[in-house]
Amino acid sequence: MASRDVTWLEWFLAAIVGLGLALGVWNGLAKGGGLVGGDTYPYFLPQKIVLADSLARGELPLWHNLTGLGYPLHAESQAGVFYPTNQILYRLFPVNMAYNTSIIVHYWLAFVFAWRFARCQRISMWPALLAALVYVYGWFPARISLEWSIIGGLCLPLTLWLTELLVDSPSAKRIACLAGCLGIHLLAGHFTLAFINQLAVLSYAALRIMLSAQNSSCAAIPTRRFVLFPAAVAAGLLVSAVQLVPSYELKLMSQREGDRTEFDPTYGHMPPVYGTQLVASWWYWHTPEMKATRAIMKTPGAVAADTNTVEAHLYWGLIPFGLVVCGLVRCWRHGFDSRAQIIWLVLSIGGLVYATGWLMPVTRHLPGFGFFMGPGRYTILTALGGGLLSAMMLDRITRRFSRTMTAVLTTLLCTLTLPDLQWSSQTIQDAVVVEQPPIAQMDTSWLRQTLTADGGTPKRLLAPGPNVGNLFGVSCIPQYLGIGPAVYQDSALRPSMGADNPEEVYPRAETIAQLESLGVSHILTLDPISRPSNDLEELRQYPDTFLNAIWARGGKSCFLYRLRSEPQRVAADPTDAMTSFQLRNVEPDAIEIEVDLTAEASVILRELMYPGWTVTVDGEPAVSDSSDGIMRSVLVSEGIHTIRWTFNSNSFYIGAAISIAILTCLLAMVVSEGRRAVSADSPLDRKQDVTV
């Protein structure tokens, strides 16, 4: 059985192999290309641009003022405002380069930590590389449009390795390291894989301790060790409180509270028969014909919920699958070689069963389980288990081989497996790498030039691509958010995107009134409006280099219209009380308005009212009178006044205080343990021990 000790030379070799694979597989990103498709441009990049701009100004990006009427960026589930690599990369590089670098670095480190965890499962140096290859390049490339997936790919094997170390030899240092890594995973902002990671740590630790107790001469299970891991998970939650407390506040006000008819946690499951993709992948299940007919939803055992091939993807490669089958046959005939085989067989099957969605009628009522969609994501455990089990069998086969022969055989198997994994992923992934990223063509976008021509007047755009208008530097509706304020589900905030039939005038009078109440000044369409309202003025129709690159529209024209009434971001009630206004110092988390009123009036800022927004009038604190609970408004007396709205999130400060406090406690534990160790090793203490 291979030793679990790892030399620096082995670390170096694994790091070189992992970096080479990351740069080779994602060479298009390394050369300055970019991703197009999936959530890249509708979701992630609009957040990252605001993040980068705020960091460039030396500010923390707590509020996003361009998506919809705004939302708390630090609280939204996938922004990752406090995630360390985001804080570093988006300070150093342009947005596209930072995004690409983040992907490549996470693939690299995910491979290295998966290899290291395989080594601590007593898999030798070379077969452990196969385990890492199957795990990283079998499960994640199909999910390339989901930035958070590879972040979880890094954290899962890392935290499991730390769990193994903590089981072997409990210490304050190891508890602090495990808690810190679990907390950092949560800081990435998307919590599904972080939750699965926590469950994996607890399950692995419980199985590891119980199996160790069964194999030892002492039958008593060390109960104290069971407590360490829930404590580490709890400490990890507290470490990430700066993220979790604002996210919890947003959740209480989001579409996921109360009536959740639009939220189905079973969405994204893996129909049981689809598990045969392990041996019938790209040449059957992933063919265009099978995907077009939605055959995945018509198979026996599929639950009554929607899904897609990306969420349900699971593939090890044919050679690793064959190794796993051979290993299981051998275990059936001769018994298990190690407790690691038992543990990963249990966890792999558990992830596969949960992915089917069969257990959701029960688990959806449990904390955590019912909050997240995508039970198919639990196959991340099966992906890691498949890599480990195949490597264990390869390790047994090569046990009597020389190191050179083992290296040659493993290299050959990995060389054959990598294209197999890539072919399977490429047939279903919903994002592709392009040589020229669309964001690089922003400067030639006529839409951007038109919408930002008179830079002092902020625009709000009604557009068919949610959030994409943010990339022009203008506000855009409708919005697309993972967790968003519940008011965004209100029909009053979701104006019609077009006429129901070509003979209808668009927009109708009621739609015009709705657009004006939201401060929408422009409408973007991909086709000309058949019968435009007299309230609309067509500004221009022309192909836009930026949008056409995102939407793969070739040379087709985009159509930009302006509302003749020129709706503004500031209004008054009564309307005739305000003679003029001027916007000053417009920033994501602060906006200043100078108004001239002929009578007392409520001055309305057509932005979302959310806990943390405070207002002053002429430098004196004032009370918001936002009666509708949506827009910000304040009662102001006659005359010329300066109104300033500022976002000060109490949930952020509370969360930050908790995070700092728990980090201080963990550091104190480590320092105290180190001092005790030094004291125990001192000559004076050893002399006293002998005397006693």
Account of the protein in words:
- The protein is an alpha+beta fold and 692 residues long.
- The chain has 3 domains: 8-33 and 74-253 and 270-429, no CATH class; 438-563, no CATH class; 570-648, Immunoglobulin-like, CATH 2.60.40.
- It has 23 helices and 15 strands.
- The chain has helices spanning 8-25, 27-30, 40-56, 84-92, 95-120, 125-139, 147-168, 172-187, 192-215, 223-239, 241-252, 281-285, 288-292, 318-334, 339-355, 360-363, 379-397, 403-426, 446-451, 509-518, 545-551, 650-680, 683-691, and strands at residues 34-37, 431-434, 460-462, 475-477, 522-525, 536-542, 558-563, 570-573, 578-587, 590-597, 601-608, 613-617, 620-622, 631-636, 639-647.
- Strands 4-3-5-7-6 form a 5-stranded mixed sheet, with no helix packed on it. It has a 5-stranded antiparallel sheet with strand order 9-10-15-12-13, with no helix packed on it.
- Strand 12 (613-617) and strand 13 (620-622) form a beta hairpin.
- Helix 9 (192-215) packs antiparallel against helix 15 (339-355).
- The protein is globular and about 90 Å long.
- The two termini are 43 Å apart.
